[in-house]
Design brief:
This protein is an alpha+beta fold. 37% of the residues lie in helices and 16% in strands. The N and C termini lie far apart (57 Å).
Amino acid sequence: MAGRKDIIAKQSIPQHLRYSFEDFLRQFPNDDACIEHIKEQRWPKGITYCEKCKAEKKHHRVTDRTAYACETCGWHIYPLAGTILEKTTTSLRTWFYAMYLMGSTRCGISAKQIQRETSVTYKTAWRMFKQIRSLLCEDIKLEGPTEMDETYFGGRVKGGLRGVGKRMNKTRIAGIVERKGKVVARTATERGNNQLLELAKEFILPESTVYTDEYAAYNNLDKATKDGKPLGYNHRRIHHASKIYVVGDIHTNTVEGFWSLIKRGIGGVYHAVSQEYLQTYLDEYTFRYNRRDQGNLIFKSILEQVSKRAVD
């Protein structure tokens, strides 16, 4: 029994990274607490520019409304304006709970699960997750030892086809990951191999070491230029076709581990994702992966995006 307790202790999240469902209930007991939180994210202590007074003023909540009024002239501001929550008829607490669940799992959460837990319709649950995922796309740069690889996602092809034929109705995905760092994943729907090289130039900083397999699309990676200047990539390759997977520090195991996470998650939770929305699901998985050291606080990072992505 003592051994079992030791195992549980080792698997627990550090205290400073814990955020349980009980913590969620205490922080957000109702919609009023939710709108107050959004207001504090956008305008700490309610202080912001008043269009009528033409000055920074403190604003106070208007009873039974989603508005805050200027303490001097009464001009209204709306914390939800320009966010994915604007004009929603669904409880803000339900929205927050959906974000909490999305941030508390490694493999994702289905709209059917939200429907069962909150009694919203499936259409509403699906739309909520679609809107939340729209906040999670990141424009980041990767440096140091990085790995780049591609995979294919989509339905199965009948008839025992192999190679290119097997991939005809699948979507190509390109992934770039820093070792022990962040990851970027993008759908690569254009034909030919130029798009993979362009993605490398977009996300990998100059002078980085880049590990790939022997795929021909990466042949000119070490000669890549941007705005006429050489990027100076140190390109190193592993030859998977020869069944060689690791030679010293040359491998693509990190990015392949990320592919495994995505395929298990999408296949096990969502079952099928159309090409139209595949990128938003990739954004969800990369957002969580890039914050895997935050424990259960990923929920708060998702919540921060609501205000950061507000359109004035």
